Amino acid sequence: MADFQTTTNPLPHGKPSKAFDTIGFLKRYGLFVLIIGSFLFTLSVPVVLLISKPNYEAKALMRIDPVIPSLITKSEDPSIINYYQDYARTQAKRMMQFEVLKRTVEKLTPEEKAAVLPPALPADKCAHILGSIIKVTPMSGTHLIQVTVSSPKRKGLATLLNTFMEVFLEKVRTNTEIQDNERLTFLRNKQQGLTAEITNIEEQLSQLTGDIYTASFSEDYNLASKKTEELQKLYVRTFEERVIAENNLNTTLKANELLESLSLDPMVEELVIKDQSLDFTSSWTYQQLQQMRSSTDGLTKNNPDRIYVEQRMEGMQSYEKKLEDEIRDNARTILYGKRDYDLQKDLILAENRFEKASNAETEVLEKLKQNQEEGVRISVGMHLGQALDSRLEHKRALLNRIDTRIHELEVEGKAPLRISIESQAREPDSAADSNVKKLMLIFFVLSFGSTGGLFLAYDFFDNRIRRPEEIQHGLGHPPAAVIPDAEKALLAQEIESNPVTAGALRSLAVRLKHEQEKHGAGIILFTGIEKGVGSSSIAFNTTRALGTLVPKVLFIDADTSNRSTELVPDIPADAPGLLDILSSSIPWKTTIHARMENNMDIMPTGNATGGSIPQQKLANVLKEIRKEYDIICIDSAPLMESDLTENLVTHTDITTLIALGDSTLFRDLRTAAELLVYLNAPVIAPVLNWGGYKRSFSIDKLLEKRPEFLNRVNTEKLETLLRELPSTTELLQKTKERARKLLQKAQEMAKTLLQKIQAKIKWGRKK
């Protein structure tokens, strides 16, 4: 509630208008409504007896048959036994329709109309009159409806009632014929529409049969679906073969990579060792070398023969080495070439098998997709065919029912009506009753209704707050305190003489102290919605109560128009105060008046005057004072009448908004609360006071006074008096007898006067 969110609805939880208090209205004005209404009703009783007239009634009976014979059809139950009472009440309502009443007036001859109704009145106006004098009532436990017409006139009632019943029967018969004609027209149009729809569905079925090559719309006849199953099985096999071939290819590739990394040198060396030519050459070379070495024995190194032999030996060894290298190279070429051939051969075979399996899988998959699309197309066509078949069957069945119903309606149109006239109305022989009861009821309602309406209108336009619930209704929160009695004069010890008021103020002080402890609310502003609401008294005495709860409390009187500290005996009237601090540079501590009781200090309003109040130093002064005191209570002028109060709202923690019961207007409460919301008041604490200077109107002072005769008569005497009063019937009889006697006396006096006049006229003629 403290933060300003939007200007359109500053009080979202409150209501813009005051709620009506029914109980409070009865407490305030109930006795006056009863007394004034009773007085007016008592005055109207003789008038009722004088204007009362006899009332004649004519009655007739109509019969509603619960069962009527059916000609050929059983499609509609001709019995209404299960809902007979509802049917009878419905017919009674239908009889009182405006068209029936107006047609009754139009069917009457001028003489018949003039006997009961005003002859010059139009038919529609007379129809409204008939609606008030004719009553149609179903008779419980029977199959009859009683039709009654009542009027002060005796002649013409039977004719009016018989004409009324004939008009209604004519309307029922006409409505039945119109209803049957409307049904037949609708059914024939529906028949033509169904025939066209059936033809259209048959054409769609013929076209669909040509598209899907079958007239049996069942999955058993979907050959594409069966072919799809076989292709799915074949695709699974080709997929398996493709996976095996792919795995074989991957294995061959991986094996080739591993085999290519292996060295064949050991096998080459094996072939070299096992080569016979090399072995023979090595053996022969070894023998020759041995022989040549033996031939060089004893020869010097420089000997030509020795040199020749050694050269031959080197040549033979070189040949042997060359032969061994050739054999090794050939063996390496053969072995590596053979291995490459075998690996390439295996790889080619694996690739061929994989390609074959992949091609087969792709071809089968394409065929499967094509066949699936065809199967889906045929399945959709079959579903469509089934739907068309169902629709066709339904349309044909509906067409057969419509044909049957048309025939039934044509025959049933000749059936008799369910309602008929049981007995005709006869002219009444004597009066049935009089209109005394109706007139008494009318005057009773007028007497009490007009009185209550006046008080209700006054209470409705009275916008004053009369109960704490209205503060919650307007602001969305209940009042922080309800003060039973806190007049402005009670500023000191006199408030303690009223324990209820003192208790309410102490309770308010405890709540404010709780806010100070919980949220640090050190500055509390007391302001009223208007003047005279008792805000100064509440502010001063609440401060005194806070002085018993916290060590140091300061009371600041900021109400420049109505200074509350002037009534404190120990403070001089010219003592400096808040206005002097704001308008001059005097220290604020020099304006403090310390009081030993209740730990309470007082800062008066001050004497500075002239022009507007300077408020530039207000925020700094309050900050300095706040450092010295636990709680600061400020009494200010009404919120909507002082700009100083509005400025104080922006620098305080809690704003106590005080309203006066039976005086403050609800709209003023809403306006003040909205202004506080616009000023971003952190906390708003509404307080309802019942002891200020209430604004009251002259009618309030009159209503607050108890009638003198009620002061003289106590409750027991009043109850005894009420018991001794005669009953209403006896009172009416006595009043009626007195009225008749008065009428007789008046008639006798009129006859006597007339005789005297006639005698004087005769005497004048003779003379």
Quick summary of this structure?
By secondary structure, this protein is of the alpha/beta class. It has helices at 22-51, 84-95, 98-107, 110-116, 123-133, 157-212, 223-260, 265-273, 276-295, 304-412, 436-461, 468-475, 499-519, 535-547, 578-583, 618-628, 643-649, 666-678, 698-704, 708-712, 715-724, 728-766, and strands at 54-64, 134-138, 144-151, 419-423, 433-434, 481-483, 523-528, 553-558, 593-595, 600-603, 631-636, 654-660, 683-689. It is flat.
Account of the 3D structure:
The protein is built from 22 helices and 13 strands. The radius of gyration is 61 Å and the shape is flat. Helix 3 (98-107) packs across helix 6 (157-212), helix 12 (468-475) packs across helix 18 and helix 13 (499-519) crosses helix 14. With 767 residues, it is α/β, with parallel strands linked by helices. Mean pLDDT is 76; it is low at 1-7, 486-493, 705-719, 724-728 and 763-767.
List its traits.
5-stranded antiparallel sheet, alpha/beta, disordered C terminus, 13 strands, 767 residues, 8-stranded mixed sheet, single chain, 22 helices, 10% strand
Q: Count the strands?
A: 13
Instruction: Output the structural class.
Output: alpha/beta
Largest sheet: 8 strands, mixed
Task: Indicate the radius of gyration in whole angstroms.
Answer: 61 Å
Instruction: Name the overall outline.
Output: flat
In terms of DSSP E residues, the strand content is 5-15%
Question: Which residues form runs of ≥5 with pLDDT under 50?
Answer: 1-7, 486-493, 705-719, 724-728, 763-767
In round numbers, the mean pLDDT is 76
State the helicity in percent bands.
Answer: 55-70%
CA-to-CA gap between the ends?
102 Å
| Strands side by side in the biggest sheet | 6-13-12-7-11-8-10-9
Helical region count? 22
